[in-house]
Design goal:
mainly alpha; rod-shaped; 78% helix
Length: 385
């Protein structure tokens, strides 16, 4: 270019000037074209960078919107799961509590019914004791007229039978005795008693021969006393033999029978003055009993019957207690299952709380992101390409 200008200065002819001007214009045009090309390329690169930044911004905004929608969906799902778990837990607790209430109510009702039955039985036994005490008081008053009653044979027999029946009836339950029971040999003892655990009857005979004792007490001299004494021995021996022959039946009656003496004073005379008759009756397995001794024997039998029934009731109570223990064991197992359900539900709720906290922290981190204004290296490379 400098040579061209020098040559133009040295030779100023018009043709050369025109050529120089044309060359200068061409150079200017070339410079302007290069400048325009560079500016257009710079604007293109800047537009590309702007478009790339806008695209990245759109991508990040769409990703943020997607994460927000996903977070909202998860929160809604977690809320629905928690609500369903809470409703299931409330329903399960209601069902379990209803079942436990029903079982406890049934147990309390059964216990109340059993207690009422035992109290009723206790009241019956107290009533029996009160009746026995009233009968004792009445019997003590009846003893005052014993002499007049013993003077009449029919009245004496009815008195002995009635007194024996009163003692037996007051001391034993109705299914443990029978009056005028017919045995297999068609004899009818005054009373038969059955003890628990033994199907055989125990015979009680109330027809004691008192006429000889009356004659013995009325004897005025020694001869009359001897005759009355012999009559007492003969009558008592015959009566003991009759009882032994009639009322001892193998497999049906006991090996021991009672001969009831309705007067304490007569019983005392027999024990004091006729010991041989007492021993003879013992050898024949017959026991002479006064009203007090018969009452003691009946009380002993009553204790045996009561013990047997208590053993039966004890078996019933034992069975009920065993059933109650089974119910308590089932209640404990169901309570443990319910506790496990509660624990599992609590663990699920805690796990959901942990997930919610993680989601919340992730959302906070997304919200704290800072977008740089400079062009990413990858975008600049793509623009240069």
């Amino acid at each position: 270019m400098d040579q061209f200008i020098a040559s133009f200065a040295a030779s100023p002819p018009p043709v050369q000037v025109a050529a120089a001007l044309a060359a200068l214009a061409l150079c200017l045009l070339l410079v302007i074209s290069v400048s325009i090309l560079r500016s257009s390329r710079a604007r293109a690169l800047e537009s590309a960078a702007l478009a790339e930044r806008q695209r990245e911004m759109d991508d990040k905004m769409s990703e943020l919107a997607r994460l927000n929608a996903e977070l909202s969906g998860r929160m809604r799902a977690a809320t629905e799961i928690v609500s369903s778990r809470q409703s299931d837990l409330a329903r399960l607790m209601s069902e379990r509590l209803d079942a436990v209430g029903v079982r406890v109510g049934q147990g309390l009702e059964h216990s109340a019914r059993s207690t009422a039955d035992h109290l009723a039985k206790l009241g019956e036994r107290l009533a029996v004791i009160d009746g026995a005490q009233a009968n004792l008081a009445r019997l003590s008053q009846d003893m005052l007229g014993l002499k007049d009653i013993l003077a009449n044979k029919q009245a004496r027999g009815a008195y002995g039978q009635g007194r024996m029946e009163a003692i037996v009836r007051d001391g034993l339950p109705s299914d443990a005795y029978a009056f005028q029971h017919t045995l297999t040999n068609r004899t009818r003892p005054d009373c038969v008693i059955r003890l628990p655990g033994d199907e055989r009857w125990m015979v009680v005979d109330a027809k004691f021969p008192l006429e000889a004792f009356t004659a013995l007490r009325a004897a005025k001299d020694e001869e009359a006393r001897k005759q009355a004494d012999a009559r007492v021995r003969a009558d008592v021996s015959k009566h003991v033999r009759d009882i032994s022959e009639r009322y001892f039946l193998p497999g049906e009656t006991q090996d021991i029978a009672f001969l009831f003496v309705p007067s304490e004073s007569i019983y005392a005379d027999v024990q004091e003055h006729f010991d041989d008759l007492v021993q003879k009756a013992h050898r024949a397995r017959i026991l002479l009993v006064s009203p007090s001794l018969l009452m003691m024997a009946i009380q002993l039998m009553q204790s045996i019957v009561r013990d047997a029934r208590l053993r039966e009731e004890a078996h019933v109570v034992q069975a009920e207690v065993s059933l109650l223990l089974e119910d308590v064991a089932r209640l404990r197992e169901r309570t443990e299952k319910l506790s496990n359900h509660f624990r599992q539900s609590q663990e699920d709720v805690e796990a959901m709380s942990v997930s919610a906290r993680k989601i919340e922290k992730r959302g906070e981190r997304i919200g704290q992101l800072e977008f740089s204004e400079r062009t990413p290296p990858g975008s600049q490379a793509r623009a240069n390409a």
